[in-house]
Specification:
Blueprint (H helix, E strand, L loop, with lengths): L1 H59 L4 H11 L4 E6 L2 E7 L10 E7 L4 E8 L9 H43 L3 H6 L7 H33 L9 H10 L1 E2 L2 E2 L3 E8 L2 H8 L1 H19 L6 E6 L2 E7 L3 H16 L13 E8 L5 H17 L4 E5 L12 H14 L2 E10 L4 E11 L5 E2 L1 H11 L2 H16 L7 E4 L2 H4 L2 H13 L1 H4 L2 E6 H6 L4 H12 L3 E7 L8 H4 L4 E4 L1 H4 L6 H13 L6 E4 L5 H10 L3 E2 L2 H10 L1
Parallel strand pairs: 10-11, 13-15, 15-16, 16-17, 17-18, 18-19, 19-20
Antiparallel strand pairs: 1-2, 1-4, 3-4, 5-6, 7-9, 7-10, 8-9, 12-13, 12-20, 13-14
C-alpha cells in the first residue's frame, strides 16, 4: 500500500512538473520570438534609412541633410548618429543624456554605396515598449485561466489515480485474507472494469466457500446421520459414546436409554415406507424437543427399529423423570395403523457412573429394554444398580451453596494440558478448572459446571480462573494459555467490561491468550448480538479465538471464517480410533481442505495412542493434545 501511494504521488507530481515545463517552454519561446521579431523590425527600419541616404546622395549630394534627417532620427529614438563620406563627417547627431544605459543600446555600422558609411546607435527595441493596464488585465486573465485549467486537470488526474489506489487497497485486503472487508469496499473507482471483475470474483469466492461448507455438512450428514430420521446413526452414537469413556470405562455419570418399536416391518408393509418415515420423524421431533434442555445429550438411531439416548451429568432422579417425559411425549403422538397401539413402544434405561464399563452399560440397557417388553404394555424400565455417587446426589441448593462458598474462599484452581505440534513442540497450554471442597477433595469440572450453569455462576467462576491465569501463571513464563468461556460468560456485561478493561491495562498479555468457545454455542447463538460483539472485541484486543467440539454435531463449517476463528479443535469422538474409522478420516480431510486458505489451524483433542497421532499428522492436523502427548512432553522434560 505504501508503494502504491508513493507511485500515485510521483505520477501526480510528474504530471504537474510536465505541465509546468510545457508552460515555461511556451512562455520562453513566446518571449524569444517577441525579442527576435522586434530586432528584425528595427533592422528593417535601419535598412530603409540606408536606402533613403543613398538615394538622397545621388540626387542632392551632401546638402539638405539637416532638413529631413533630424526628425527621422528622432522618430527612430537614435542616441548617436554619424554619416561620413570618404571618411569625412557630413552629418552627426549626439544626445548628451542617453535615455538608457549602454548595455541596452544597439550599434549599427554599415558601409554604403558612393563612399558613404553609417554609424547608428539605437536602444534595444523591446525596452521602449511598456505594458498598459489593458495588457496587464489580459495577462492576468490568461494566467487565471491557466491556473483553473491546471487545477481541474490535477483533480481529474488525482480522481483517476484514486481508482488505482482503491484497487491496491482491495488487492492488499484480498492478499491478507480479509475477503469480507474487500467485498464491502466501494467499487466506483476507475478503472471500473477491474473493480467490477474483483467484485464478481469475491462474490464467486464467497459462494464457493459457502458451497464448501455445505459440502462439508453433506459429507458429515452422509457419514453420521440416519437418512430416514435425520438424527445421528450408529456410527455417530458409537463415536459420542467413546468420547464419554476412556479405555472402555465411563468418565462421567448419566443415563443411557434404548427406545424400540415393535413390529416395524409389519407397520411398513401395511402403511408403506413414506408413512413409516413420517411416524419416525414425528417421534424424533418429539424426543428432540424433550432433550432440548439437556446440554451435550446424544440422540441417534442405533438400528432399524431402535433409538438411543445418552444424557451425561444427570442424576438418578432426573433420569427417571426424563424417561417418563420421553415415553409420554411419544405416546401422545397420533400413531395410526399400529397393530397393537397398547404394546408397540418400550424404553429401557441404564444409569451409569464414572468407572462403569461401556460394554456393561449397553448390556444393562438391553436388559432394561427386555424387562419393559416383558410387561407387554407401553412402558419403561430403569436398570438401577442401587449405587449412586454421593456427589451426584447433591441437590441444587447444596450445589449452589458449595459453589458460592468456593467462589468466596477462592477454592477454584487450574490444571494445564500442553498442546503440541507435529514436531512435539509445545504451542500453548489449555487451562482446565477444578474445585476443592471443605474436606480438601478435588471436584471435577464435569460435575460442577452443569450445576454452575443452572445456578448462573459460570461468569464468576471463569473470571476467577482467568484472574489466576493472568496474574499468577502468565508472569512466570512466556507461554500462551487457552481458556474456555461459556455462553453466559460471553454475554455477561459485567464480565465483558472487566475483561476489556483488564486487557487494555495489560495489553501485551492479550497476545498470549486464546479464548475457546464450543461449536454448539456458536451454531445455536450465531445471531446473538452480545455474543458476536464479545468475540469481536476479544479478537481486536489481540487475543486469538478457538472453537472446540468441532464434529460433535452435524452442522456446516462456514461459521469458522465468518467469526474469524484462529484455531479449530476436533471433538474427541472424531479423534478416537481415527486410524480405524475411514468416515472420521473423510470428515477431517474435508474440514482441512475447506480451511486450506483461511490460515486456520486444526487441532485434535483427546489423542490417546501413537496410531491416532500418526494418522492425524498424515491427514494434515496441525497440533494435538491428550494423554499420549502429555506423556511425551513429560518424558522430554
Amino acid at each position: 500500500m505504501q508503494l502504491t501511494k508513493i507511485l500515485t504521488k510521483k505520477l501526480t507530481s510528474f504530471w504537474l512538473l510536465s505541465l509546468a515545463a510545457v508552460a515555461f517552454v511556451f512562455l520562453l519561446s513566446a518571449v524569444m520570438s517577441f525579442i527576435q521579431l522586434t530586432y528584425s523590425f528595427q533592422q528593417q527600419k535601419v535598412t530603409e534609412l540606408e536606402t533613403m541616404l543613398v538615394a538622397h546622395h545621388k540626387q542632392h549630394g551632401n546638402s539638405q541633410l539637416a532638413t529631413w534627417l533630424p526628425p527621422l532620427l528622432s522618430a527612430y529614438n537614435a542616441v548617436d548618429f554619424t554619416l561620413t563620406h570618404d571618411q569625412q563627417v557630413i552629418y552627426q547627431l549626439h544626445k548628451d543624456k542617453p535615455i538608457l544605459p549602454k548595455s541596452s543600446l544597439t550599434l549599427y555600422q554599415r558601409q554604403l554605396d558612393h563612399g558613404l558609411s553609417l554609424s547608428l546607435t539605437l536602444p534595444a527595441p523591446f525596452v521602449l515598449y511598456h505594458l498598459g493596464w489593458s495588457e496587464v488585465i489580459i495577462l492576468l486573465i490568461g494566467f487565471i485561466a491557466i491556473g483553473l485549467f491546471v487545477r481541474f486537470g490535477h483533480r481529474w488526474y488525482s480522481r483517476e489515480l484514486d481508482g488505482i489506489e482503491q484497487l491496491a487497497q482491495r488487492s492488499k485486503l484480498i492478499l491478507d485474507g480479509n475477503l469480507t472487508q474487500a467485498a464491502q469496499m466501494p467499487t466506483n473507482g476507475k478503472p471500473r472494469l477491474i473493480n467490477r471483475a474483483l467484485t464478481k470474483l469475491l462474490t464467486d469466492l464467497d459462494d464457493a466457500h459457502k458451497e464448501r461448507g455445505r459440502l462439508d455438512q453433506f459429507i458429515r450428514k452422509d457419514t453420521f446421520l440416519d437418512k430416514q430420521t435425520q438424527i445421528g446413526n450408529g456410527i455417530f452414537f458409537q463415536n459420542r459414546l467413546d468420547a464419554l469413556s476412556h479405555d472402555q470405562t465411563m468418565i462421567a455419570h448419566g443415563v443411557l436409554m434404548l427406545i424400540e418399536f415393535d413390529d416395524v416391518d409389519l407397520v411398513e408393509d401395511k402403511l408403506g415406507e413414506s408413512d413409516l418415515t413420517a411416524m419416525l420423524t414425528l417421534t424424533t421431533e418429539a424426543i428432540t424437543a424433550v432433550l432440548a434442555q439437556y446440554e451435550d445429550s446424544i440422540f441417534a438411531r442405533r438400528s432399524y427399529q431402535q433409538l438411543v439416548i445418552v444424557v451425561p451429568q444427570l442424576s438418578l432422579a432426573e433420569a427417571d423423570q426424563l424417561a417418563q417425559r420421553v415415553l409420554k411425549a411419544c405416546l401422545a403422538l397420533p400413531f395410526y395403523g399400529i397393530g397393537n397401539p397398547e404394546n408397540f413402544l418400550h424404553l429401557g434405561s441404564a444409569f451409569f457412573k464414572a468407572g462403569d464399563l461401556q460394554v456393561q452399560l449397553i448390556d444393562e440397557a438391553e436388559m432394561a429394554l427386555r424387562a419393559a417388553q416383558l410387561q407387554q404394555v407401553n412402558n419403561w424400565f430403569m436398570y438401577d444398580k442401587g449405587a449412586v455417587d454421593e456427589e451426584i446426589a447433591k441437590g441444587s441448593v447444596r450445589w449452589r451453596s458449595f459453589l458460592e462458598n468456593a467462589l468466596v474462599s477462592k477454592r477454584f484452581f487450574t490444571l494445564q494440558q500442553a498442546v503440541v505440534d507435529s514436531d512435539n513442540s509445545i504451542l500453548h497450554y489449555e487451562v482446565f478448572s477444578r474445585a476443592r471442597d471443605h474436606q480438601g477433595k478435588d471436584v471435577r469440572a464435569t460435575l460442577f459446571i452443569p450445576m454452575a450453569n443452572k445456578c448462573g455462576l459460570m461468569p464468576q467462576i471463569e473470571r476467577q480462573i482467568l484472574e489466576q491465569v493472568l496474574f499468577t501463571l502468565m508472569p512466570r513464563n512466556d507461554a500462551t494459555y487457552c481458556i474456555n468461556l461459556s455462553l453466559d460468560t460471553l454475554v455477561s456485561r459485567a464480565f465483558v467490561r472487566w475483561i476489556q478493561s483488564t486487557l487494555l491495562e495489560h495489553r501485551p498479555l492479550a497476545a498470549r491468550l486464546i479464548f475457546e468457545v464450543s461449536e454448539d454455542i456458536i451454531v445455536k447463538h450465531q445471531k446473538n448480538t452480545a455474543l458476536v460483539k464479545s468475540l469481536d472485541m476479544l479478537r481486536k484486543m489481540g487475543a486469538k479465538l478457538a472453537v472446540d467440539h468441532v464434529g460433535q454435531h452435524v452442522v456446516g463449517t462456514h461459521y469458522i471464517q465468518e467469526f474469524h476463528f484462529d484455531l479449530v479443535k476436533l471433538h474427541r469422538s472424531i479423534v478416537r480410533q481415527v486410524h480405524q474409522r475411514s468416515e472420521n478420516q473423510l470428515f477431517i480431510r474435508s474440514l482441512i481442505g475447506g480451511l486450506y486458505r483461511a490460515e486456520v489451524k486444526v487441532i485434535a483433542e483427546g489423542v490417546e495412542s501413537f496410531e491416532e497421532w500418526q494418522t492425524l499428522k498424515i491427514l494434515g492436523v496441525s497440533a494435538a493434545q491428550g494423554e499420549y502427548l502429555a506423556q511425551i512432553t513429560e518424558t522430554e522434560a
